[in-house]
Design a protein that fits this description.
single chain, PvuII Endonuclease, Chain A, seven-stranded mixed β-sheet, binds zinc ion
């Protein structure tokens, strides 16, 4: 797995597709649109499916329906995932616009696996990546505020603190793919997903 984002694509987006370019201390501020394009490209190019190990993940277009949760599919095994992403070293807060949908899935026992991806602010590459198997995600995790309180009047979305989610679910309920520079092989990820399912 190459953890770097596509530098040419990054350059193109910064120069041609960002609504505004802003220089701060000689650094280019990366827009949400650019992050999204780079993450989509990287996931489809480098990331193996945590459920079957195939490199066959495809991102769906940005979620429009408030109750739609899954935003990434495996074309090989048909698994669905909810991918959230944020940049470090800030607080790693990821925007979740499927809060109500997530609650519904947890209540129905149909929660998709949640992939949590963090990259550096300059968008040069992925720093941290893990999966919370849907079998391990509970309603109380939302109620405890791990995923943050939804904004008043906006109960369809909230911010997720990825680092806190990792901390709270550390004991076997998360499956690492990339952590502190260490990459976990796709076969081992698939095996650990099964182990986590058994725990959940
Ligand atoms: Zn798969």
């Amino acid at each position: 797995m190459d953890t770097r984002f596509n530098d040419e694509l990054r350059q193109w987006y910064v120069e041609n597709a960002q609504p505004r370019r802003a220089q701060r201390g000689g650094r280019v501020r990366i827009s949400a649109l650019t992050y999204r394009a780079l993450v989509d490209d990287w996931v489809e190019r480098e990331l193996a499916c945590p459920r079957c190990g195939a490199r066959a993940l495809v991102r769906r277009p940005p979620v429009r329906e408030e109750d739609e949760v899954a935003n990434c599919d495996c074309q090989a095994c048909g698994s669905e995932f909810y991918l959230i992403d944020a940049y470090l070293p800030m607080r790693g807060r990821a925007h979740c616009n499927s809060y109500r949908g997530m609650l519904g899935c947890i209540e129905a026992g149909t929660t998709p696996d949640v992939m949590c991806l963090q990259y550096d602010r300059e968008a040069s590459g992925v720093i941290d990546l893990f999966v919370v198997p849907g079998t391990c995600l509970r309603k109380e995790h939302l109620a405890l505020g791990i995923m943050g309180e939804p904004e008043e009047g906006h109960d369809t979305w909230c911010d997720i603190e990825i680092g806190r989610l990792r901390h709270e679910l550390e004991d076997g309920a998360i499956v690492d793919i990339l952590r502190e520079g260490r990459q976990i092989g796709s076969n081992e990820v698939v095996r650990r997903m099964h182990e986590a399912d058994a725990l959940g």
